[in-house]
Design goal:
By secondary structure, the chain is an alpha/beta fold. It is 41% helix and 13% strand. It contains 16 helices and 14 strands. The strands form 5 sheets. A 5-stranded mixed beta sheet has the order 2-8-7-6-5, with helices on both faces. Strands 9-12-11 form a 3-stranded antiparallel beta sheet. A two-stranded parallel sheet has the order 1-10. Helix 4 packs across helix 10, helix 8 crosses helix 9 and helix 14 packs across helix 16. The model has no long low-confidence stretch (mean pLDDT 96). The chain binds ligand F0G. The site of ligand F0G has 15 residues, from helix 4 and helix 5.
């Protein structure tokens, strides 16, 4: 098929999908208040809303589910999970959580005081909201190139190291209890962070005595980009690259629904026993006993395997290759996409595809709605709806679930976008009719603007 990667899987179980008639799609969208988060999955043909928890587990994972140890305390499943996390990260102190944002809540509630500043290359929406919930101040420090959707550079997810230095000078290290790096940088179009950048950020943090943490949701994909693109890493294995990455930081929060290849799960991993003890106390209050942390034993078993599978080279080649293929097809069709494609998703530049829709009429939301009515495709807005005034671009993310769709599905997405492009003048802007706050995008309602 000319996509350039060998398929690493064949199917053993299938799940039917359905394309509703156009009239039905239009009706469903109106009922959903023009917010695709409110649609039912039965009414969706190709679902690219998120790559989070939507992946297909391997037969090894499904087998391990049957062997889950559901003991409240000290389960075998926890030991397997903890040992996997320890061997990947080199960090001794591991706490499971039910997903990434639970790890964020537990962690930030133990380290942040009112008015504290948290720098990040770019916060994801729940990370930003969890910092705000503790009365902290999230501060994004992407490099300027991240805002240029055209320049073809290998590591557009990097943190602006000079910006970090200036921020520390300005507010003082005492006001910054932690610095975060999000790998890959989801909000900056899924772009990777180079090992050199992690080293530079780590050195600034060390100099000022500030802990450095990873938001490791997609660290496996990030390690693959390092392997492919960064000088000196072509002959390093992915687990070795991951080891080096984690060796540079003091801990990590992870949504294991991404590069853990699980349908649910997350964790906190730390080197510091005192920080661990504080988080553990909070975890017992909100998530559960420290050997299950909001998960069933079977989930922990599946993650113990998924975390390793996500570092296998044939898997990563196919995964990142699939995303790249979609990006290339769209670019060839003249659809403005953020370049280069990220690790988990292709981001369409809605403000350029729909130039007649001004920012205040949410071009990203308009495009998301048009993709659903045109082809039953569900995508997500990553722009002014999601980030309000903090939005730097009006993007629509086509996130690809792991090991789920094949090239025919993605071709359908390309064809759908081409049909939207061909009738773009007819795509209306949107107005917000209900919803507020930093998480409004999940529940807001919209209507076509006049
Ligand atoms: N950090 C990053 C970088 C994420 O992308 C996400 C989730 C989280 C943290 C929170 O993890 O969902 O397990 O609670 N991202 C999903 C997405 C929801 O669609 O990008 P969670």
């Amino acid at each position: 098929m000319g996509a350039g990667w060998p398929r690493a899987y064949k199917s053993k179980v299938v799940e039917p999908i359905r394309l509703p008639e156009r009239g039905e799609r239009e009706a469903r969208l109106v009922e959903a208040g023009h917010n695709v988060f409110r649609l039912e999955s039965n009414d969706i043909y190709v679902d690219l809303l998120t790559d989070s928890g939507t992946g297909a587990m391997s037969h090894a994972q499904w087998g391990a589910l049957m062997q889950g140890d559901e003991s409240y305390a000290g389960s075998r499943s926890f030991s397997a999970f903890r040992d996997t996390v320890r061997s990947i990260t080199g960090m001794d102190y591991v706490l499971p959580t039910h997903q990434g944002r639970a790890a964020e809540h537990v962690y930030f509630s133990t380290v942040l005081s009112r008015g504290d500043v948290v720098p990040n290359n770019t916060h994801f929406d729940t990370t930003r909201a969890n910092v705000l919930a503790q009365r902290g101040r999230p501060y994004d420090l992407p490099e300027a190139v991240a805002m240029d959707p055209d320049v073809d550079l290998p590591f557009k997810g990097n943190m602006d190291v000079d910006g970090l230095r200036s921020l520390i000078d300005e507010v003082g290290a005492r006001k910054i209890p932690v610095v975060f790096l999000t790998v890959t940088n989801n909000t900056a179009a899924g772009q990777p962070v180079s090992m050199a950048n992690v080293k530079a950020v780590a050195s600034v943090c060390r100099q000022h005595g500030i802990p450095l943490m990873l938001d490791a949701a997609r660290y496996g994909e990030n390690c693959f980009f390092v392997h492919q693109r960064e000088d000196g890493y072509a002959h390093h294995s992915i687990p070795d690259i991951a080891r080096e990455l984690f060796s540079l930081v003091d801990g990590c929060l992870m949504s294991a629904k991404k590069d853990g290849l699980g349908n649910i799960g997350g964790f906190i991993a730390l080197r510091d026993p005192e920080g661990f003890a504080r988080c553990r106390e909070k975890l017992i209050l909100t998530e559960g006993f420290p050997t299950y942390g909001g998960l069933a034993g079977r989930d922990l078993n599946a993650l113990a395997i998924g975390l390793r599978e996500a570092l296998e080279l044939p898997y990563l080649r196919e995964r990142v290759g699939q995303v790249r293929w979609l990006g290339e097809q769209l670019a060839e069709e003249g659809i403005p996409v953020y370049w280069p494609p990220g690790g988990h998703a292709v981001y369409v530049d809605a403000s350029r595809l729909l130039p007649h829709i001004p920012r205040e009429k949410y071009p990203g939301q308009s495009l998301v709605c048009a993709l659903y009515t045109e082809g039953g495709v569900r995508a997500v807005e990553v722009g002014s709806v999601m980030f309000g005034d903090a939005a730097r671009m009006e993007l629509v993310r086509l996130a690809i679930p792991r090991r789920v769709y094949c090239q025919e599905h993605l071709q359908w997405v390309v064809d759908t976008l081409c049909r939207v492009r061909d009738r773009k003048e007819t795509v209306p802007g949107m107005q917000l009719v209900e919803g507020q706050g930093p998480l409004r995008h999940f529940i807001a309602r919209f209507a076509p603007a006049d």
